[in-house]
Amino acid sequence: MVLPGTLDAPFLRFYAETVGPYWPPERALIDDAYRNLDFPFAETRSPAFHIEVEWTLPRLMDYLSTWSAVRRYQSVQGHDPLPALAAELAPVWGDAAAARTLRWPLFSRVGRLH
Q: What's the pLDDT tens digit per position in 56-67?
């Protein structure tokens, strides 16, 4: 996911450092855009795809609360890491009820069968 402007750095730090150790190992496949999977086809370049949404800060926090890494963090650490992230994002976000454009890439590998 990419947050606009100065919101991106705190979000990426949260993703990689705060809850990063709590992602399941197979999450690395997504982070690597599936490049390390065996692919027995002649690979063809595919167009870039992404999801784009207009979310408020509370909606973003609701979404992040569904992440398996956030839930594992909560279970292991005994507290929720999201309030600290929300507090870090809030001054940069501005009005929490204001929607911001958020986007994240979708990955695919396309190939031809000869």
A: 999 999 999 999
